[in-house]
Amino acid sequence: MKKTVLAVALTGAMLAMPLSVGAEEEIGSVGFSISTLNNPFFVSMADGAEAKAEELGVDLTIVDAGNDTAKQTSDIEDLIASGIQVLIVNPEDSAAVAPVVSDAIEAGIKVIAVDRSVDGAEVDCYIGTDNVVAGETAGTYFADVLGDGAKIAILEGIPGASSAIERNQGFLNAVEDRLDVVTSQTANYDRAEGLTVTENILQANPDIVGILSANDEMALGAIEAVEAAGLVPGEDVLITGFDAGDDAIAAVEAGTMLFTVEQGTVEMGETAVETALQMMQGEEVEATIPIDITLIDADYLANGGAEEAAEGETEATTEAAQEETEAAEGETEAATEAATEAAE
């Protein structure tokens, strides 16, 4: 198997962590098949998983499907053959990946789906956002800002991906009775396609005033298309994102994107590895682990939202450092006591 992506093989360390693995304890390995690493959202997810694996001493291999269903199937087959105990999967196509996921289950491998569900195979755990609710939240906010009857277009994600299907359903639940959806087209969660598709939409529908996008990358492409058409994004055409990547946050700050939806991509990766370790240790886990969303607009940022997020990361880092210090102090005390007893 060609591994051009992240790979972690770490043991020992972090004995003070409740989920950590001892240096002499062999409990197995985890494989993580991710839909693509050509999207900041999934790069952050992989980074979260990698960092948590290092922290907990989990043997983790991450493979990139490159948005190719056939490659993802082949990758998972290779992971099964390698003898993993847990498979974490972020499907490129939720239905197409089901047969190979079923093979993993039949082989006795625990399966965790992240961000996107698997349609046609019963996984042990799903970790992610309720994308229907998230889509409804975004669509309702958009309709409130634009006002009833406004003409909009929707940019859909990858056909077959559960996140795209569910998010689009949420959008429609919120806006179909309030806004005039003149067209809804896929741009495959891709920035370049978002640009091209939006250019075509604007040519056919020059009077639209809003674009509701299922992810940041397509929204950023739409911003470029609106600018190329001689219009002002954020004024002539309001554009929304989803995922809260760095470029999207910058666009919200600049006023070219109305809002983006943050859904804890790093948390998804971290939680997947934590859950995989719990499974390998024989613990029961929840069938569904929900990830909360936050709608990030200019007001949120102006009121310190970005700073709060940064502070949260700092607090988490500080807590981890404190735990390491306490563990080291405990080991020192134990060693001192042992030496004293030996001397006596």
Automatic annotation (TrEMBL):
Sequence segments annotated as region (Disordered): 305-344
Highest taxon in the source lineage: Bacteria
One GO CC term on file: cell envelope
Molecular-function annotations in GO: carbohydrate binding
Limits of the Periplasmic binding protein domain: 30-284
SUPFAM superfamilies found in the cross-reference section: Periplasmic binding protein-like I (SSF53822)
Signal peptide stretch: 1-23
Subcellular location: Cell envelope
Biased composition (Low complexity): 335-344
Keywords associated with the record: Signal
Compositionally biased spans, kind Acidic residues: 308-334
UniProt record similarity statement: Belongs to the bacterial solute-binding protein 2 family.
Stated name of the protein: Substrate-binding domain-containing protein
Species of provenance: Candidatus Choladousia intestinavium
